[in-house]
Design a protein that fits this description.
Distance between the termini: 56 Å
Number of helices: 16
Number of domains: 1
Shape: globular
Order of helices and strands: HHHHHHHHHHHHHHHH
Radius of gyration: 20 Å
Structural class: mainly alpha
Helix content: over 70%
Number of strands: 0
Length: 356
């Protein structure tokens, strides 16, 4: 046990150690240049953690490992629950059926298609395929972290998935403004999108929340409804992580039982209760009983806790474990990225036309 008498001191020291790294990541992410790139403290945290893991990890007491593990597991689940304070059901309703359907379709298709492509086409390990697909389908690094406990995946697999969604999410942050300026905005035919439509497209297909915010902000003269639609559709995708994880748990239990192994008889359905609590917190937040100033403070603390979890994940990532993976994760993530950009455009156009 992490806080048993013999482990308590090492656990606390490990948590404090991770918190120091997370504080540094938060400060770096607040630098204007880094902020303009749309890199969140979560991303900075895992980079710092990985650097530590492959350079200095032998220079701290091994007893601190329980605290690092605690940060990457228990603190993570707590932080995911309180992520619900970023969402209200009213915001989801305001974006309309078009935004909801684009979110639902893109999440579902990206998760299923991405998992299949990674596992069947590029012969990746199943956990890595699902983790990478979940990051692309929902909300980048945070979604990968939320999916990891359901799969009970090893830390280095999670790190591979995070690195892929960060890479292609960053590319999309620079690509989408160029697409809008050179193709979508001036066109008068099928490729044309109104600012609100483009916002739905951005929110329904880009990986990280910070990247979604950055795209409209980087388009000169972008109207408010573009940014508003983008953020709300994105947060709709975020809240869908809870039912996604529950369905994934059902699928894993069913798959294990279907194999017919003797061990499968003892397999139980794993319900990610932190995802259920996440919905409950979002529902409570929708009642607007807590002052906005307090909600803002909660969200800042929550971002720091997520940064701690991401940093701890990086600290458990040794590059030697990646041997044998080759370019498969890059190919799989690249295929998902093409689907998000091209397929997402077609889905957005079709759904908006259907519900307009």
């Amino acid at each position: 046990m992490a806080f048993s008498k013999e482990n308590r001191s090492g656990t606390i020291s490990g948590i404090v150690f991770v918190a120091i790294f997370a504080t540094a990541a938060t400060m770096i992410a607040d630098i204007a240049f880094i902020k303009n790139l749309g890199l969140s403290p979560l991303v900075i945290g895992i980079v710092m953690g990985i650097f530590y893991a492959n350079t200095l990890h032998n220079h701290i007491p091994s007893a601190w490992g329980t605290g690092i593990t605690f940060s990457g597991k228990k603190i993570l689940r707590f932080a995911i629950v309180f992520y619900g304070f970023r969402i209200t059901f009213q915001e989801i309703m305001n974006v309309g059926m078009s935004g909801f359907m684009v979110s639902l379709i893109m999440l579902t298709t990206t998760l299923i298609f991405g998992s299949w492509v990674g596992y069947k086409i590029f012969k990746m390990e199943k956990d890595t395929s699902i983790l990478t697909a979940s990051g692309a389908a929902v909300c980048g690094a945070a979604a990968v972290l939320a999916t990891e406990p359901v799969l009970k995946a090893e830390g280095h697999k999670t790190a591979v998935a995070v690195s892929m969604v960060v890479l292609f999410g960053t590319i999309s942050m620079f690509l989408y403004p160029v697409l809008y300026a050179s193709i979508i905005e001036p066109a008068t035919g099928f490729l044309h999108m109104t600012p609100q439509e483009f916002g739905i497209y951005v929110g329904g297909t880009i990986h990280e929340v910070a990247q979604v915010v950055a795209v409209p902000a980087s388009i000169p003269g972008a109207p408010e409804d573009m940014a508003h639609s983008a953020v709300i559709v994105k947060m709709t995708r975020v809240i869908m992580i809870a039912p996604m994880l529950i369905i994934l748990g059902l699928y894993l239990a069913y798959s294990a039982k279907k194999k017919g192994d003797t061990a499968s008889d003892g397999v139980k359905l794993v319900i990610p209760w932190f995802a259920v609590y996440f919905i409950g917190v979002a529902g409570f937040n929708s009642l607007q009983l807590v002052p906005l100033s307090i909600v803002g403070g909660i969200n800042e603390i929550d971002t720091f806790l997520l940064t701690m979890a991401m940093t701890a994940l990086g600290m458990g990532t040794i590059f030697a474990k990646f041997k044998g993976l080759g370019l498969a994760p890059l190919y799989a993530a690249g295929t998902m990225f093409i689907w998000l950009v091209v397929g997402g455009f077609l889905v957005t156009k079709g759904v908006v036309a259907l519900f307009s």
